[in-house]
Amino acid sequence: MISNKAPSEALILEAQQTWVDLNLFKSPYFSSLLHGKMTKEHFVHTQKAFYHAVSYFSRPMCLLASRINSTSARMDLIENIYEEHGEMDSESFHENTFKKWLQRLQPGSEVDFPLVPCIDSFNSALMGVCQTDPTEKGICCLGIVEYMFSHISKTIAESVVQLNWISHQNLIHYNLHADLDVKHAQDLFEIVNKLPNPNVNICLEGLRLGAFIFARLFDDLFQLNQNT
Q1: CATH number, span 8-21+41-222
Q2: What's the predicted TM-score (pTM) here?
Q3: pLDDT tens, 153-205?
Q4: How far apart are CA 83 and CA 155, in angstroms?
Q5: How far, rounded to the nearest angstrom, does the alpha carbon of residue 101 sit from its chain's CA centroid?
Q6: What would the DSSP string read from start to end of 68-117?
Q7: Where are the domains of the chain?
Q8: Out of 138-142, 193-197, 217-221, which region has the weakest mean confidence (pLDDT)?
Q9: Cα separation of 228 and 219, whole Å?
Q10: E strand or H helix that includes residue 9
């Protein structure tokens, strides 16, 4: 259990345990990818859909920042948002690096991708918790998503190279987030320490909610019809 002051170290331990309990790489999406059963066409289709999650992710963060009364805590979140936007370098905006990833994965891939319901639902859930729930719940929800994505990014980067879908030299986006998002998760959890009297149970609710909706997203992506 985490202490009443919700120190970042304890929240990271909770995130680690949540990740272990999820056993996400045994899920259909990642099991299929890791065992070479997913076709490149199916994978590319899911990644085109996932673009809308990448491009949207900073928006709930921006809304959440506006709700944080502590100037110090708010500035820490703004710094995270700044990094999400490539430190103001448009070429490094995460949505732009993801587009480059898709173009390298499938040269000639279209730039505009349809928004599918499972991504729309995920985005709406993040926006909802950041807009209406206690701020510590929103922070922990975003934090576990960042933490999970660091592991997911490492696995996807390694898998696509092993499957010869892309060369190691052409990797972009996922190889960066394998390390960056561990830092982002830690930074988010440290913000909780600066909030006045954060509620332990609400922090845990945020962790569990974020883990649930992100894991569920990949289950839904696996079921996507390529004609969608």
Answers
A1: 1.20.910.10
A2: 0.90
A3: 999 999 999 999 999 888 886 766 556 557 778 889 999 988 888 888 999 99
A4: 22
A5: 16
A6: ---HHHHHHHHHHHHHHTGGG-GGG-HHHHHHHHHHHHSTT--S--PPPH
A7: 8-21+41-222
A8: 193-197
A9: 16
A10: helix 8-22
